[in-house]
Amino acid sequence: MKYWRKPLDYEDIKIPRGKVSIIEDRCKGCSFCVEYCPRNVLEMSEYFNKKGYHIPYIKNPGDCVNCNFCEVICPEFAIYIEKLEE
Amino acid sequence: MKKQGDEELNGMPGRHPLSSLLREDRMPHIWCPGCDIGTVFSSCLTAIHESKIDYNNFAMVSGIGCTGRAAGYIKLDSFHTTHGRAIPFATGLKIAKPRMKIIVFSGDGDLFTIGGNHFIHAARRNIDLTVICVNNFTYGMTGGQVASTTPFNSKTSTTPQGNFEKPFNLPYMAAAAGAVYVSRWTTLHVRRLTGSIVEAFNKKGFSFIEVVSSCPTSFGRRNKLGSPLDIIQHFHKISVIQNGIHPKDANLDISKEIVVGKFVDTEAPTFFDLLEKIYPPEM
Amino acid sequence: MEGTEHFIMGDVACAEAAIASGCRFFAGYPITPATEIAERMAKRLPQVGGVYIQMEDEMASMAAVLGASWGGLKSMTATSGPGFSLMMENIGLGIVMEVPCVVVNVQRAGPSTGLPTLCAQGDMMQARWGSHGHYEIIALSASSPQELFDVTIKAFNLSEKYRLPVLIMTDEVVGHMAEKVIIPPSNRIEIYPRRITKLPPEEYLPYLPDEDMVAPMVGIGEGYHIHSTGLTHDKKGYPVISAPVQKEMIDRLVCKIRNNVDDIVEYQEIETADAEIIIVAYGISVRPAQKALELAREKGIKCGMLKLTTIWPFAEKKIIELASQVKGFVVPEINYGQISLEVERCSAGHAKTILVKHAGGAIFNPDEILEAVEKL
Fold this sequence. Notes:
heterotrimer, A: 86 residues, alpha+beta, Alpha-Beta Plaits, two-stranded antiparallel sheet, two-stranded antiparallel ribbon, 12% helix, B: 283 residues, alpha/beta, Rossmann fold, 9-stranded mixed beta sheet, 31% helix, 17% strand, disordered N terminus
């Protein structure tokens, strides 16, 4: 991130990191998680799951900031985040 | 009994954070791809956790319909009753178990069309229930027929040329009947919805939360609303948060404007308060 | 019989019996002639720590009764013909969810609004088949306020023992008639407690039956996390949409009653040992039938009476046994032939069945019944 000048509490703020896990067989390909991820971590893939739906894949795993929005918006309980300890 | 609401909701390898509240032996659930009943259900489970109330103090009662199937997926004492009669069933259950939190989780057709009479009486009694209504403007399970909340001019399977009846304004009805907590959110406002549900759990009296959703399979296709993602993006564009306004001004026009927010949050004596005052327990 | 003597009407006796059985929840709707049950419960329940709630209609009443019963309270409702028709869907729910509760139908002349203040016995088949689908039900009947008291206690016990809604089919005359009722002391009243499982939550299955085909219940909010639905369900309570599970569930619901018929069915035989003609009567019709029996015996006719307390399941075995002994049955009922059809079916041609019918609005004159006996 580019700053005009360094914020005074730059050292203190730790950006949380998260690890995305997708439960493949539950996903029904609605793509809400892809659309509403603020860091563009996910993208829909060409892969089919067992039920024939396209599921998302983790495009930029390092960018996940543990906001959990994909987890709360998913109607299928198919995606969740584990908070990564620093 | 250890209070299960104490830990943070954190995912663990291979385990969804809400696993302890979900009947995983019945997943994946029956709701269509893109149907956001799942989102509302997930929000309700998160709220059960965030309320920090012991999980065993909750019970869920639902009626018939797509939303009514939710009672079959929650890993708590749950009851899937007859069409429209979830609220009186919940009333009886609450009277037998006054210390439990009873959640009524059902759809607009079940709660307001066939169940309309029961809704207004329960609100009038101010019995301590939390009623979550997923409003998808139609009877989804049976293929998309017209309901009391179907917008004017919409096409449904029983109004093929368009609905000519005026729909209900649900928050207005709830507030007029005597509900002490009334709010409306869309399925996109997940976090505010969760907060609202937690407030409703802690509220003494009849709480009503309407969640504007859509049925992309029957209602959405007939009315050319697009894919489930298009619909939720449309909700994003047209919804406006207006906390505290009078429920009669809470417009809901799915082509133009959805007013969301917390409309009513008052105090009033509940059914049990008044029962104990006039019929004090003698034994 | 020891106890205190009271001069009360049938409806009040029914309410007192419910309280004596441990009923602590009543959800009802006013309807003539059952309103007095609701009024008495409204007065007495707060005195014993129970709750009376007047619901907005009979459908809500039945739903609330089911909810409260799940919550652990013995529950009851009371209605008459029009309300009984409304309650049918939820009675079906009670049967499939297997919820113990009691529904009283103080019958009045129908169909439709009919004669609200006059009696009839026209809902007997409706008690058996009123709700959709195939199921078994227990229905009891009473012919006097004292009997209504005793039968109400029996009804609560049967409902807890067999885990289903039990119907009490009485009529307006018995409901509104005031007679001497002896109420025994509470330690003399036998109460069948709710069967609660002893298994821990990990092992308990909501619909896994014991040897007598009845599954034990649990308390709600105690960590068992049960799911109960009106959909056809398996032993776990989960809805399964398939024919084999339907067969399993219906077999169990039906056999639960049919296998235990000997325990459930009750009747009284009066002078049947040498009888050639037997009057089969129930409810208020028992009283004129009793008089007709006396008059017949005076005339030298070898007449007896079978007084039915349990209407459903029907006393098939007894009728089959008596049919081989008698010339015929006389069935006086205040309808155009409902229980008489059952008597005819069970006698299978071995004995004649004569129906003494009545459209409703009054009770029989003993001479009408005597005439039918003499004709045989």
